[in-house]
Write a structure and sequence with these properties.
Layout (H helix, E strand, L loop, with lengths): L6 E5 H4 L2 H8 L3 E3 L3 H6 L5 E5 L5 H9 L6 E5 L4 H9 L3 E3 L5 E3 L5 H7 L5 H8 L4 E5 L5 E8 L2 E8 H6 L122
Antiparallel strand pairs: 1-3, 1-4, 2-3, 4-7, 5-6, 7-8, 8-9
Amino acid sequence: MLSQITYILLDAARMGNTIEEAKEMNPVFDSLYRGRSEESLSVVAPYLFLFQHKTDFINWYMAKGWGDSWGVLIKSPYPLDELHKHFRKFLIVGTEDNQQLYFRFYDPRVMRIFLPSCDTQQLREFFGPIEYFVMEDADKNFALKCWLQNGILHSQKIKLNDFVGGNVPPPPQQEEGFAWQKPSMPGQPSVPGQPAMPAQPSVPGRPGLPAEPSMPARPSMPSEPSVPGRPSMPSEPSVPGRPSMPGEPSAPSRPSLPSEPSAPGRPSVPSEPTVPKPSKPKWNMFD
């Protein structure tokens, strides 16, 4: 499988002076940095190399660079200049506090974390013309192959000897290891609940006992005849009362004074307009 690799993206920041040795052994390369960045940051820049087969470069890289996070291997049918243009789109990312940072996606330790965090749209944009990546696993005795199929990220751990010798088994249908797929589209399917347990059959109650017969009410006794009362005496004639004296004339109430006009309140100070935050791109072209 190593013979199928077409490119390798190396990190000069990890390699130090060894990057110059790589340039001498494999002269077909290009820095992803341009302009002033290429001049001032060449010692830490990422370099895209054509992975030439049947050369000493392959054995040199596997002997000295594998397991030390030098970079990632790439399979792509596109020419170097097209792939170079594609990777330059991801060199700088913006943060929520409007900072711009270099994105070292070509570091295997970063890519193993970055890929599972992407949604489907981000994965399609990042893979673009790339068929698959191969990088060292956290255990350097294994290689990790990553590819995109139908918008879903897949991975396969391969023993290093099989990867170098080409005896790579076909990938299993269900990948093991990383939880590579992150749901991108509508949320995760709901998990069906447990089936409801059938209700227990009701236990028939005991037959009700017949109610006791009600006792008939006692017959009411006839009431005693009422005794006629004495005749009422005529009331005495009422004595006419004295005529009421005319009351003193009431003093007219003082006219109410008009209330003082209320002082007009201070006009409310308009609140400051909310400044909308501009949306930031996920990644920017680095020039």
